[in-house]
Amino acid sequence: MMEIVDVTKLVPQRAPILMVDRLTDATDDVAVTGFVVKADNYFLDDDGLLAEVGLIEHIAQSASAFAGYKALLAGASEPPVGYIGEIKKFHCYRRPAPGEELNTTITMGAEVAGVTIIKGETRVKGETVADTQMKIFIK
Amino acid sequence: MLLENSYYKIIGRSGEGLDAVFRVALLPDCEVYKGHFPGNPVSPGVCNIETIKECAMLLTGKRLVIDTIRQCRLTAVASPSVCPEVEVTLSCSPVGKGFAVTAKIADNERTYMEYKGEMTVITA
């Protein structure tokens, strides 16, 4: 795997909604990302835990980072902008707390007419906290 | 509430029981647009999902967490300039430890989101 130091080369999102720190592994159709929930995260709920939608955004940006990595390998200079088209079968098992590190495995299906179906599973120390399917449009 | 009065503001409400229509303004000065995306403000789909959840909390009078999203279709790109005001149409029905929630976000021009899922009541 090509080493990417700066995740902002892989995704177009920026603070306060940047929800991925690094891409730690990538093959043709599977990638792994890491993200530490910080105390000032945009999606911390009233009770201090990461809101469910924060998990969804993290999974979407993990897929976006994977697509950005592939684009970079193919010679692109800017990360592609991806939009969520559909979320299906999302489950939130537990909302992570600040300080916890999310590790997300993205499995990317084939692209058909600009739409890619991905599966994402987010773990904290091996425990699954959320999983989902998504359709993503990448431009 | 995570996003009320920062990302959106409720400007009207109608309906009875567990069915309601919330009229909502999308606030252009929300800090989320600094990063989504720089120079190209687009309303994050997840913020619209959170808006649905917060309307469901107001409607049911309970604190809720999203347990499952069966299906959420994002059918058009939303932003405060494309749709400064939208209607969140919401129907909740009691199921298990919470509610089955069906929702739609739309204006007169188009539908932005169609949502079906289950939310659980937090008792703590």
What does this structure look like?
The complex is a heterodimer of chains A (139) and B (124). With 139 residues, chain A is α+β, with helices and mostly antiparallel strands. Chain A has one domain (17-138): Hotdog Thioesterase (Thiol Ester Dehydrase, Chain A). Helices cover 16% and strands 41% of the residues of chain A. Chain A has a six-stranded antiparallel β-sheet with strand order 1-2-4-5-6-3, with helices on one face. Chain B is mainly beta and 124 residues long. Chain B has a six-stranded antiparallel β-sheet, covered by helices on one side. Chain B is globular, with a radius of gyration of 14 Å. The chains are: A alpha+beta (139), B mainly beta (124). Chain B: It holds the Pfam family ApeI-like. Chain B: InterPro entries: ApeI-like, HotDog_dom_sf.
What's the topology here?
The complex is a heterodimer of chains A (139) and B (124).
Chain A: E1 22-26, E2 30-36, H1 52-73, E3 82-92, E4 101-112, E5 115-124, E6 127-138
Antiparallel strand pairs in A: 1-2, 2-4, 3-6, 4-5, 5-6
Chain B: E1 8-16, E2 19-26, H1 45-60, E3 64-74, E4 85-95, E5 98-106, E6 111-121
Antiparallel strand pairs in B: 1-2, 2-4, 3-6, 4-5, 5-6
